[in-house]
Amino acid sequence: MSLVSGISLKELAQKIGADLEGDADKEVVGLNTLDSASNNEVSFIARKSFLSSLPLSKAGALICSNDLSEGYSGNKLIGEDPYLLYARCTKVFKELTNISPILGISKFVQVGNNVSISKKSSVANFVDISDGVTIEDGVVIGSGVAIGENSVIGCGSKIYPNVTIYDSVEIGSNCIIHSGTVIGSDGLGFTKHKGEWLKIEHLGKVLIGDNVEIGSNTSIDRGSVGDTLVEDNVKIDNLVHLAHNVKIGSGTAIAANSAVAGSSSIGKNCTLAGCCAVVDNIEVADEVHITAKSLITKSIREKGVYSSGTPFMKNDDWKKNAVSFKKLHKLITNK
């Protein structure tokens, strides 16, 4: 990654809370991998498995822990948690490369009645803002975004191009919503009458807290009766589906291709790895961690790590094991 301007290692260390060993005046301009970093870039190491790459690295500085830095003679940014220092470092370089958006509303924006848009916000071309919308200070809205009636976007939030926000959606402060995401669409609510499906109208809202990030092409349904709730500091990956009336507790992270069915509740500080599924109307306690491709079919009352599914194996072995699995009940009960 190449930047127009750089930063001294002394200033970088102060910004990320690291101890510096080496040339305080050396200027660096970006981050890169151990293998690819140049002399004016910073790299990092957080695992012993990458120690073999250190002698070949040309990085101008290395983010590391004391243990992992032994034997490395170059400039070092040292801390107890190298991955945390790396995360802070990405923010520093992101800010150096960011171009401040032009404040104000493009002349190619369609604005409804009784709309409140802060003069300290930025609204790009071809945005459609419906009646009663509130856009607060520091909001950045990309091109092609649609915002439904009576929705609110809180201070400092960034909405990337082509996001669709339906009516009565409330988004908190300092949120990031990536392209293609849809918030506030109807969920799967139908009942059968005389052999035909009758739609159940969804009358609730979607309420999103502060410091929430939502990946691209994610879909969050509005509540049918009552609201869908995503609390503060939740992080949601790409291609995730939250159905109507789902509640996600603060500090929880959900990885790509996962889905939570209607009226289920996920607690605080949980993690759902990729391709997890949670069935409807269950509760998951705080601090529950669910491994990849797990199917959760009943409530989880105690914190801990939970798994389902089977690990990969050779296909011939899998077929043999699948046959055995189908016979387990008979083997156990002798029936």
Layout: helices, strands, pairs:
Elements: E1 7-8, H1 9-16, E2 19-21, E3 27-28, E4 30-31, E5 41-44, E6 61-64, H2 66-69, E7 76-78, H3 82-97, E8 104-105, E9 110-111, E10 116-117, E11 122-123, E12 128-129, E13 134-135, E14 140-141, E15 146-147, E16 152-153, E17 158-159, E18 164-165, E19 169-171, E20 176-177, E21 182-185, E22 190-193, E23 196-199, E24 206-208, E25 213-214, E26 219-221, E27 228-230, E28 235-236, E29 241-242, E30 247-248, E31 253-254, E32 259-260, E33 265-266, E34 271-272, E35 277-278, E36 283-284, E37 288-290, E38 295-296, E39 304-306, H4 315-326, H5 328-333
Parallel strand pairs: 4-5, 5-6, 6-7, 8-11, 9-12, 10-13, 11-14, 12-15, 13-16, 14-17, 15-18, 16-19, 17-20, 18-21, 19-24, 20-25, 21-26, 24-27, 25-28, 26-29, 27-30, 28-31, 29-32, 30-33, 31-34, 32-35, 33-36, 34-37, 35-38, 37-39
Antiparallel strand pairs: 1-3, 2-7, 22-23
Care to describe what's here?
This protein has 335 residues and is an alpha/beta fold. Helix content is 14%, strand content 29%. The chain has an eleven-stranded parallel beta sheet with strand order 8-11-14-17-20-25-28-31-34-37-39, with no helix packed on it. Strands 9-12-15-18-21-26-29-32-35-38 form a ten-stranded parallel beta sheet, with no helix packed on it. Helix 2 (66-69) links the parallel strand 6 (61-64) and strand 7. The chain is flat, with a radius of gyration of 25 Å. The termini are far apart. The mean pLDDT is 93.
